[in-house]
Each structure stands twice: as structure tokens, then as C-alpha cells.
Write a structure and sequence with these properties.
Chain B: Pfam families: ABC2_membrane_6. The complex is a heterodimer of chains A (264) and B (264). Chain A is mainly alpha-helical. In chain A, 73% of the residues lie in helices and 0% in strands. In chain A, helix 3 packs antiparallel against helix 4 and helix 5 packs parallel to helix 8. The chains are: A mainly alpha (264), B mainly alpha (264). The interface between A and B is large, with 39 and 38 residues.
Chain lengths: 264, 264
């Protein structure tokens, strides 16, 4: 009975948000295009033969960056910006009355957007394969399944981190600058611009304890068939989620007590 | 054009926007930290590219740092002037407040491009200059007047091109209403400016110098800085800048004909 109710709620939310997202198809296509930085990086890597030093062949590297693009497409989170706007405009007040945590709404928004973005990402991948026909490969089903899970876990980690930052809106009103600050390590350490294997030793010694390599590097390595520690990576992802979730719950309950309903 | 009137108006703009921005003091502090971290991150990334054979695209690490410095300055200028103003255009058009701008007895492009300023970009500009000074030291560049004036000319041209690109995309809002993500695409392309143009493959080099002259913006001033640029490249940059500026102006006037105010 209860699970039925939850199912109905989730499906309704998803359906509403999906149709909402479909209205802005062009916008989402543009967003998909804005994620092609990994391909430019790939171009630098292969054009200057930089991969010789890290023992990854051209083909494996191009698969890695393609996978990094895909993982990024399906783990991008922007809940801070939505929440900041809603909280500044006072839109959070009606959400709070509903018997559903407003973050479910944002969660559904993200999922709906990912579904909308999927075809565009496929088109970009198609073009990528036209230019790099030698890098075509088909991952086996088990690996594909595992990498979808780890991409989803990476999305969850980022969603939790951003939700925690978003809750800071209750105190500071503007949380997007904190998000920009957090984005810097995400950009440079997650493996979006260069695979983590290529980092110098003094970075590699501690980076695997932070959540960053598990955001893009781990799922991308898994999907592309590069060497990676599968069970260790998944464990770390789950460990980070288990660590972040109670923090989010705590900060959410503290924050709602502080909430002053701006604009009403 | 009455220059004195415009200067006076601009002084007022500066005053009001600084006053309103300084209200969020912690925000500015966080932005400063973000700027520093982002510079560290990009130098870190650059050092990864150079750790294997010391050259990319014929540039040494010390030389590539100059590109990084110029990129940082330009990025600071973007964050200080272009980004806050030109994202405002989107808001003006969505809410129909462009009417008020058009009714004012000053040039509409002047008004919407310079009205706001965000002080957090200043630090980035300063950081860029410090990096450039450091580069002068490690590359043993002799400063003289012709060289400095040429540098200044090329950098001003780069700023013009950058401004025109931003302005061009923001102007398309008049037709598409929401162009948030188009600026994201531009941002991700601008990312390329951190690397020497020669480090990309031939086709991308053509794309980034003919269609969107992004690599142009930082590579040519850096070459001038090193004293290895040919005269035709400098001339080319001046011509491109002039074309971009005049086209963006014409495009704005043309676009205004299609503006139908919202909610009135």
C-alpha cells in the first residue's frame, strides 16, 4: 500500500517534470553541447602524443573521454541554482506544506532532464564515432549495468553535496558562490579534463580518499574498459553517500527551522 | 555622442552597482578564493600536459603560462563586466523591462552592457597580471615601448572580440527568449583559450580561428608577448576585432526591430 503510494508519487512527479523538460528541448540540446570539453581535451592528448607517458593507447583514451562525456551528461546537478531561486522568490513555502520533501521535486527534475538529454548525447556520440571510427566498442552487459549504477551513484553524490550547499541558502541567501567554489575541485580532480591515472604521484596518494575521482573517472574507466578497481570504487561511492546523507538530513531539519519565507 | 555625458553616467553606474554588490561581502570573499583555486587548478592541469615531453604544440611550459595569464585577465574582465550585464539582457527581455531601457535618452547598447559590475573579477585580473609579471621574469623578456603597445593593442582587440561574442549570443535572446544555455556553450568553448592553438589538430584549429576565434583571443597576444608573432597575425586580429564589433552593433540594432515587449 505504502510502496504503491510512493510509486504513484514518483511516477507522477517524473511524468510532470518530463513533459516540462520536453518544452525546452533546444535548451537541453545546447546543454548537451556545452559538455563537449572532454573531446577538446582528448584532442590535445592525442595530438601531442601525451598518452605515451601513462601507457594508455589512443583508442582507449578516446573511449575514456567519450565515457567521461557520457558520465558527465548523466551526473550534472544544478539543484543549488533552482533552490536558490525558489528560496529567494519565496516559492519554497508552498512546497514545505506538501507532504513530500521538496528535494524529491528537484530530484525528479534532474532525472527528467537526463531522459530528455539522452537522445542528444547519443547524437553527439554518433558524430564522435564518425570522426573516430576505430574507437567503436560494445561493452558487455555486466559492465554496462555496473557502470550505469556507478554513474547513478556519482549523480547521487553530487546531488547530496549540492543539496547540502543549497540548504545553506537558509542562512546566507546566496549559495551559488559556494557551489562555484566546489565546482573547481570537481572540474580539475574528477577526471573530466585528464584521467586521474595521469596525475602526479603526490596528488594520487590522497585523491582516492576524496569523492572527486568517483564522480567521473571511476565510472568512465569502468565503462570504457580501462583498468580500474571495480569493487573498491563502488564501495567508496556508497561510503560517501552514506556519509553525506545524514549531513543533508540534519542540515535540512535545522534549515527549515530557520526558514523565514522570503517574499511572503 | 556626447562623451562627457556618458562618462558621467558610467560613474553613476559604477557607484550604484558596487554599492549593491558589496552587500554580499562573504560572497565576494568566496569568489576570491574561487578565483585563486581556479588558477591553481589550471596550472596543475597544464603541468600534467607537460610532464611527459615538455612541449605541447611547440610551446614550452614557461611560455604556455603566458597564455594562462592572459586567459586569467580576460576571464576576470568577463566576470567583472560581460557576465553580469549580458545575462541581465535575458532577464530584461523575459520580463519586458527592456522597454524602460529603450525609452532612456542614452544608447541602449551602452546601457545594457555597462550597467552592472561585479567586483569579484578584479582579483582575477590582478592574479593574471602577477602571473604575467612572473612569466616576464622566467622567460627573460625585455620590455620596450613598441612591444608593450603592441601587446596592449592585441589584448584590447581580444577584449573586443570576446565582448562581441557574448553580446551576440545575448542578443539572440530577442528571438529565443531563453539563452542561458547558449552562454554555457560559449563558456565551454572559451575554455579552449587556455591552451595554445597549435596544440589542437588541424581541423579544430580551423574551427577555432575561423568560426569562433577563441584560440585567437589568447594565442596571438601571447605570441606578441614572447616576441615571436608575425605582423600579419596582429593585423588580422585588429581586422577581426573591428568586424566583430561593428557586426555585433548592427546585429543589436537589427534585433531590436523584432523586439515585442512582454506583458504590455
Amino acid at each position: 500500500m505504502i510502496s504503491n503510494l510512493i510509486n504513484r508519487k514518483i511516477f507522477t512527479l517524473l511524468k510532470v517534470q518530463y513533459s516540462n523538460m520536453l518544452e525546452y528541448r533546444v535548451e537541453i540540446a545546447l546543454w548537451a553541447i556545452s559538455g563537449i570539453i572532454p573531446f577538446f581535451m582528448l584532442n590535445i592528448w592525442t595530438n601531442n602524443n601525451l598518452n605515451e607517458s601513462i601507457n594508455i593507447s589512443d583508442v582507449m583514451l578516446s573511449r575514456y573521454f567519450l565515457c567521461a562525456f557520457f558520465v558527465r551528461q548523466f551526473s550534472v546537478v544544478w539543484v543549488v541554482f533552482s533552490f536558490e531561486e525558489d528560496s529567494l522568490m519565496g516559492k519554497v513555502s508552498p512546497y514545505l506544506i506538501q507532504p513530500l520533501n521538496p528535494f524529491f521535486r528537484y530530484f525528479a527534475q534532474h532525472l527528467a532532464e537526463q531522459i530528455t538529454r539522452f537522445p542528444f548525447a547519443l547524437i553527439i556520440a554518433f558524430f564522435f564515432f564518425i570522426f573516430n571510427p576505430e574507437s567503436i566498442w560494445i561493452p558487455n552487459l555486466g559492465i554496462l549495468f555496473l557502470s550505469i549504477i556507478s554513474t547513478f551513484l556519482s549523480f547521487l553524490i553530487q546531488f547530496l553535496i549540492q543539496s547540502i550547499v543549497a540548504c545553506l541558502c537558509f542562512w546566507t541567501e546566496k549559495a551559488s558562490s559556494i557551489e562555484r567554489l566546489l565546482f573547481i575541485p570537481t572540474l580539475f580532480l574528477s577526471g573530466l579534463l585528464a584521467p586521474v591515472v595521469s596525475f602526479p604521484e603526490y596528488v594520487k596518494s590522497w585523491i582516492y580518499l576524496t569523492p572527486f575521482p568517483y564522480l567521473i573517472d571511476f565510472p568512465a574507466n569502468l565503462l570504457s574498459g580501462n583498468e580500474t578497481n571495480i569493487s573498491g570504487g563502488l564501495t567508496m561511492q556508497i561510503a560517501w553517500i552514506l556519509l553525506l546523507f545524514p549531513i543533508f538530513k540534519k542540515i535540512w531539519s535545522e534549515g527549515t527551522k530557520k526558514y523565514t519565507a522570503m517574499g511572503s | 555622442m556626447n562623451l562627457r555625458k556618458y562618462l558621467k553616467v558610467y560613474k553613476k553606474f559604477l557607484h550604484t552597482s558596487l554599492a549593491s554588490e558589496l552587500e554580499y561581502k562573504t560572497n565576494i570573499l568566496i569568489d576570491l578564493i574561487t578565483a585563486i583555486l581556479s588558477l591553481i587548478g589550471s596550472i596543475f592541469l597544464l603541468s600534467i600536459f607537460f610532464q611527459s615531453n615538455g612541449y605541447i604544440g611547440g610551446w614550452k611550459f614557461e611560455q604556455a603560462l603566458i597564455i594562462q595569464g592572459i586567459y586569467t585577465i580576460l576571464n576576470g574582465i568577463t566576470n567583472t563586466w560581460f557576465n553580469p550585464n549580458l545575462t541581465e539582457i535575458v532577464k530584461h527581455i523575459r520580463e519586458g523591462t527592456l522597454d524602460f531601457v529603450l525609452l532612456k535618452p542614452i544608447d541602449s547598447q551602452f546601457f545594457i552592457s555597462l550597467k552592472r559590475i561585479s567586483p569579484s573579477g578584479f582579483l582575477e585580473i590582478m592574479l593574471g597580471f602577477c602571473l604575467l609579471l612572473y612569466c616576464i621574469k622566467i622567460n627573460q623578456i625585455n620590455l620596450n615601448l613598441t612591444f608593450l603597445s603592441l601587446c596592449l593593442i592585441t589584448i584590447i582587440c581580444s577584449i573586443c572580440i570576446l565582448y562581441s561574442l557574448w553580446f551576440f549570443i545575448s542578443t539572440t535572446t530577442i528571438w529565443f527568449v531563453k539563452t542561458w544555455n547558449a552562454t554555457e556553450v560559449l563558456r565551454s568553448f572559451l575554455y579552449i583559450g587556455r591552451f595554445p592553438l597549435n596544440s589542437f589538430s588541424f581541423s579544430l584549429r580551423i574551427f577555432f580561428s575561423v568560426f569562433i576565434p577563441i584560440a585567437f583571443i589568447t594565442t596571438i597576444p601571447s605570441e606578441v608577448f614572447l616576441g615571436i608573432s608575425q605582423l600579419w597575425k596582429i593585423l588580422l586580429e585588429v581586422i577581426v576585432a573591428l568586424i566583430f564589433c561593428s557586426t555585433s552593433r548592427k546585429f543589436w540594432l537589427y534585433a531590436l526591430k523584432f523586439y515585442s515587449s512582454a506583458s504590455s
